[in-house]
């Protein structure tokens, strides 16, 4: 069975030394949060994820969720672990104290969420969906609804869902058919069927709060006619006690490639009572309140799974003796050398390590932007942080989950044949990681969102704000000769990024298909360059301390691998993007 | 449930128009094989794979093999389908008539094997392992052993296995511990435990013939002390009837990520009677007789799974309506446009199509080399073909299975959320494809074999023979202006291949780790360039006929996509290789 140790040292290094969480804690909103709290929170998060949640991961995969007569049973131990998670206050770390949350920075929430996904992605899904639902309710719900539902969503007494997809529409929500009709008491009657509803039904809590996209009578066609409704599994009385069972039932659960301990439900709404959230026909905006939160969470699945896969692959590579080093036996007293002497095994492990640590830095950098966008005293800084998040969110969702899938496969490969055998657990990481490239907006859609809405539609404004920050940091590193090996190439890759970006912006005017033909390659290119920036931030700190602790020397060496062996892909991506759309679009449908 | 239609038209195009199978049929050995036989064989192979074998694929995955009291039961229908396959003579297509085979070219065998893996990889494994075992027996076995076992292996009345791996050694066979002791009648007593034995036990045939690597008493240490033994499940009397049960038993079967209908067995040999195959202590050479055959077969799994995944993804992309084209509605009368209008969906499908058709061409090109190496009248041509196969075999094993895994994942992605749900079958292709990157020598080992043994150790002789053939073909295309868009870039990529190859050969003298650090990138680079050569061969034919049939126009357009969007990766691979080994090797073990 695989093991997991939360990377506390790396997380604290990033929070404290690279990303200066102390500056965030200086915001007025965090006045009650002391720097001394950071370490204990990280270590307690490590404890519960390592000890309570991770041990359920492999048994959960083997047992899966079961469905009978509308009731979903989660694997053994999930209910108790969920209760411990709620009791420990882990559901409400980052939520507003006004609704019972602990008001801690997103930076700590993201650190927790990474550990949670490393430990058990299926388990994490019962928790993280609630965060999105709570967020939508807090931002757009009436006070009455907040009073009834928000505290309990925040605490974890209830869980939440997002009910978007229908059988005939996933990406294209404009096609959805679920209907909402106003009834006498001001609430709505919801009827329709939703599919792929994560945590739509389960046995962990007494109530489940569904956030449902539906169409009012005479609503405009397409996405401009969609509204959002809160539909509880059980109605709630004014005193907070549970009322009658609402007309929403699970029809079946899916049999999936992975995340088998997470229930993926068909949900039937049959004149279910619902409450409008936000304005009528503005459901898409309300939805994005949830979606942007979820996209970060899903991105973290890629990171979390790659991290735990790395840890186990590394242990195996140190332990397993097989063949001799190309330069002669390293351990002549043993019957063979450990796998770790082989350059190709190191290639796999370093690829994982470089993406993991770079992605972790970017995740926490983004979390810092979220904290800034909400709580910075200066409105301009808040807006800047929002703009940067607009462009970084699809990168975190897609780049993290693409590299996460690549890396869990490398982890499996390090194990050779044993990696393919279920009992070692490495293949579960691959199966669990695969969904993250799809749900909450498939990665192709993330890329299209990035290029179309975040790059082309604002003519590069957000991108300029991002590249200016990178550029300023690079310039500030110019006089540090020990950083030359990173500064010079990053400067050149940054120029490539800008060149490619404006090539796309210009092309898009006359060749709209270029937006689509370049999207996936552009997202990867942007991700690689931002990660180069993260690595420069890391080595700028580490280079000063490499004599005092090998930990910092490891950072320099990993950065060097990243710059030599992973960043060069930028050049090919540029070439592919600039090859344009014709070779994709010229093929007639019947020639495929 | 997914469907499958064998790509007969493409196979016949390659056999007849691109690779001139008529020249192979002109060899004396094939004097009884008429060109008129080619089409019926392909269409009958299509029929049995589509109609008898493919329908068992998804149920086989769901049911899996079961194990009880040493007995393995294959999924429902496998026994009957196997019998039909044997009765149709499909087990012995390419085998020597001397032993009951049909003496048909390897080119037709490879065409069949691709279809078989598209239809059902698990099923195919019961058949293809026998080919390797038969090959080793034919090349190295005594006449007595051939008389007893070879006809029945060839016909499929018995199946065969390769028993190499032990719990502590996979790649590094020098470590193996299974013992063989000579007994009075000239046979040997074999004792030890083997793992990961594909088809080690099953209920399809009355007997199973194991080819077992073991160590004689006082054998030299390491790989120079390994011998190969034939160990039948049941001993065979001189009259061909089955004798007593031999001391080889299945101890358990593995629970795996995929190929669940293929039995993967722990095999316990307890004083089992075995017969020496080939010379004592020369077992590794004997093994490579099997292994090189198997490596082509395993490569074909990547192609076969990618092909069937492509067919289903394409059908879905034409059928599923979601969102509008970036250039405006293409089907304004429908509620949305089909997925196929979207550039990013086309990127995924064309990547699959370009690799599939390129890999298929290379597979059949390699099969032609096998036929040439065995049956060409000119010894020099036979040797040349052997040398080319030495360098192409690891490419087929690793490049096909890496691109196969990439492509089955693209196929899944085209389906969005539905791709992750078991009932659609797309995720099974991914799980089934994953093992092919590992077994019969993990792809990292293929790459090391390529760079160390096939490139560096002979100082580029084999590579030169290959590049000369490519170069000559390119030169012959110079005067065809319609091919310019392919000829000029391929010439440049070929130069890159040669430059990189000699850089590695030179570096290897002083920096042995460069052999390992460049291996995986080099194999991919070589694969991409060889596929560029295949595409040039294809368009050289197609460009003359594109007016007469859209089929040929499709080839030109697919080649264009390959050259614009896939081949450019060569440049990044070059950069990564030439970045050397230091960034991999400088990290101390404890800094990982």
Oligomer: homodimer
How are helices and strands ordered from N to C of chain A? HHHHEEHHHHEEEEEEEEEHHHHHHHHHHH
> Rough shape of chain A?
globular
Sequence stretches where pLDDT stays below 50 over 5 or more residues of chain A:
none
- Helix content range of the residues of chain A, please? 55-70%
Tell me the distance between the termini of chain A: 45 Å
Strand content of chain A: 5-15%
Number of helices of chain A: 19
Helix-and-strand structural type of chain A: alpha+beta
Number of strands of chain A: 11
Mean pLDDT of chain A: 97
- Considering residues with a beta carbon less than 8 A from a beta carbon on another chain, report the largest interface and each chain's count: A-B, 93 and 94 residues
What does the radius of gyration of chain A come to? 24 Å
Main sheet characteristics of chain A: 7 strands, mixed
């Amino acid at each position: 069975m695989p093991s997991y140790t939360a990377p506390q040292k790396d997380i604290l290094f990033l929070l404290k030394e690279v990303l200066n969480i102390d500056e965030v804690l200086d915001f007025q909103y965090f006045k009650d949060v002391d720097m001394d709290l950071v370490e204990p929170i990280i270590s307690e998060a490590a404890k519960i994820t390592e000890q309570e949640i991770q041990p359920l991961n492999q048994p959960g995969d083997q047992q899966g969720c079961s469905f009978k007569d509308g009731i979903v049973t989660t694997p053994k131990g999930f209910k108790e672990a969920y209760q411990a998670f709620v009791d420990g206050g882990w559901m409400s770390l980052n939520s507003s104290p006004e609704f019972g949350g602990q008001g801690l920075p997103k930076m700590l929430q993201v650190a927790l969420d990474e550990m949670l996904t490393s430990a058990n992605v299926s388990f994490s899904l019962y928790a993280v969906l609630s965060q999105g639902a709570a967020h939508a309710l807090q931002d757009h719900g009436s006070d009455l609804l907040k009073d009834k539902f928000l505290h309990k969503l925040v605490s974890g007494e209830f869980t939440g869902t997002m009910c978007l997809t229908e059988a005939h529409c996933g990406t294209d929500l404009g096609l959805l058919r679920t209907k909402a009709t106003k009834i006498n008491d001001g609430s709505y009657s919801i009827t329709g069927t939703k599919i792929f509803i994560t945590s739509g039904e389960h046995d962990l809590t007494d109530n489940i709060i569904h956030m449902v996209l539906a169409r009012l009578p005479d609503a405009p066609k397409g996405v401009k006619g969609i509204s959002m409704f809160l539909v509880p599994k059980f109605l709630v009385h004014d005193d907070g006690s549970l009322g009658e069972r609402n007309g929403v039932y699970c029809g079946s659960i899916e049999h999936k490639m992975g995340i088998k301990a997470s229930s993926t439900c068909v949900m039937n709404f049959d004149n279910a009572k619902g409450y409008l959230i936000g304005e009528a026909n503005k459901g898409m905006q309300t939805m994005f309140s949830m979606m942007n939160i979820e996209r970060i969470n899903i991105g973290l699945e890629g990171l979390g799974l790659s991290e735990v896969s790395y840890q186990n692959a590394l242990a195996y590579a140190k332990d397993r003796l097989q063949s001799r080093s190309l330069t002669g036996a390293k351990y002549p007293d043993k019957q063979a050398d450990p796998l770790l002497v082989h350059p190709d095994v190191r290639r796999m492990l370093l690829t994982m390590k470089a993406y993991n640590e770079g992605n972790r830095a970017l995740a926490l950098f983004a979390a810092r932007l979220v904290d800034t966008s909400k709580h910075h005293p200066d409105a301009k800084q808040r807006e800047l942080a929002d703009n940067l998040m607009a462009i970084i969110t699809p990168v975190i969702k897609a780049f993290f989950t693409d590299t996460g899938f690549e890396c869990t496969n490398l982890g499996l490969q390090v194990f050779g044949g044993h990696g393919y055998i279920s009992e070692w657990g490495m293949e579960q990481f691959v199966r669990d990681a695969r969904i993250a490239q799809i749900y909450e907006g498939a990665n192709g859609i993330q890329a299209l969102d990035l290029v179309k809405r975040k790059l082309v539609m604002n003519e590069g404004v957000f991108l300029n704000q991002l590249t200016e920050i990178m550029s300023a940091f690079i310039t500030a590193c110019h006089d540090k000769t020990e950083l030359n090996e990173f500064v010079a190439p990053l400067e050149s890759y940054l120029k490539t990024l800008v060149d490619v970006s404006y090539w796309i912006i210009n092309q898009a005017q006359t060749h709209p298909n270029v937006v689509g033909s370049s999207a996936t390659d552009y997202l990867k290119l942007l991700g690689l360059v931002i990660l180069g920036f993260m690595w420069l931030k890391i080595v700028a700190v580490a280079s000063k301390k490499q004599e005092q602790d090998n930990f910092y020397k490891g950072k320099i060496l990993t950065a060097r691998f990243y710059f030599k062996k992973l960043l060069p892909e930028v050049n090919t991506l540029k070439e592919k993007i600039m090859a344009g759309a014709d070779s994709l679009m010229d093929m007639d449908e019947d020639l495929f």
